[in-house]
Amino acid sequence: MSEENTQPQAPETQPEAQAAAPEQAQEQQQQPQQGQRRGGGGGRGDGRGQRRGPRPERRNEEDEGGVKSSTVGVFRSAKVVKGGKNFAFEALVAAGDGQGNIGLGYGKAKEVPAAVEKATKDARRRMVKVSLSGGTIPHEVMGQFGASSIRLVPARPGTGIKAGRHVRPVLELVGLRDVLTKAYGSTNKKNLCKAAIKALASLRTKEEVASQRGVQL
Predict the structure, then answer these.
(1) What is the CATH number of the domain that holds 87?
(2) Is 149 among the domain residues?
(3) Domain count of the chain?
(4) pLDDT digit of tens for each residue in the chain (217 aa)?
(5) Neighbours of 108 (CB within 10 A)
(6) 3-class SS string, 59-92
(7) In a domain, 70, yes or no
(8) Per-residue DSSP letters for 79-139?
(9) Is residue 2 part of a domain?
(10) Which candidate among 3, 24, 56, 84 keeps its CA 20 to 30 Å from the CA of 99?
């Protein structure tokens, strides 16, 4: 009796196992698809929790009367008052004509465009004359402002401007094409730009030095 009861049960379980096998395979295929939908690209959750990089500095160039201007940096300041905080924006702008005239201006306002406009006007008022030798400088020079120092070295044609992103606009607007630079001390962008302006203003050509000394070359 035991053998008769066990033999007919085997064929009944085999169809059930065969029917359950395709269902399990379909579930396994659906699980990775659901995981891809949740973690895949294109969803709203992309980028959440990730740290954003620094905002690029705003740089704009305007051409008015042959003088171009470039925004070196925009800074934000806050004043704590009884009702909260009052924010203001400060802009640092370099202006030059590419013919040896360069100026650095600073402006502050409650809006960025107004601060840039003030800084541009200030840079045009503070323009100084720089002695150049073709597309480079006549001699090596060192400039210092505060805790920042910068060294400018003449370079051969085709070298290009080897400078940081804060000092490069100043050198480009003055009309230089080939120059080497090296910064020392603090990397504050305001001080570096002012040190570069002081270094450029102290340049002298051989003819200028000879005329000042009253000698002939």
Answers:
(1) 3.30.230.10
(2) yes
(3) 1
(4) 444 444 445 444 455 545 555 555 555 555 544 444 444 444 444 445 444 444 445 455 555 678 899 999 999 999 999 989 999 999 999 999 988 999 999 999 999 999 999 999 999 999 999 999 888 999 999 999 999 999 999 999 999 999 999 999 999 999 999 999 999 999 999 999 999 999 999 999 888 888 888 888 6
(5) 14
(6) CCCEEECCEEEEEEEEEEEEEEECCEEEEEEEEE
(7) yes
(8) EEETTEEEEEEEEEEEEE-SSSEEEEEEEEESSHHHHHHHHHHHHHHT-EE---BTTB-SS
(9) no
(10) 56
Whose structure tokens read 């045009």?
124
Classify residue 87: in a domain, yes or no.
Answer: yes
Structure tokens at 4: 């008769």
Query: 153: which residues sit within 8 A by CB, 6+ positions away?
Result: 137, 140, 179, 180, 181, 182
Structural domain boundaries, residue 154: 62-205
Tokens of 73: 């940096």
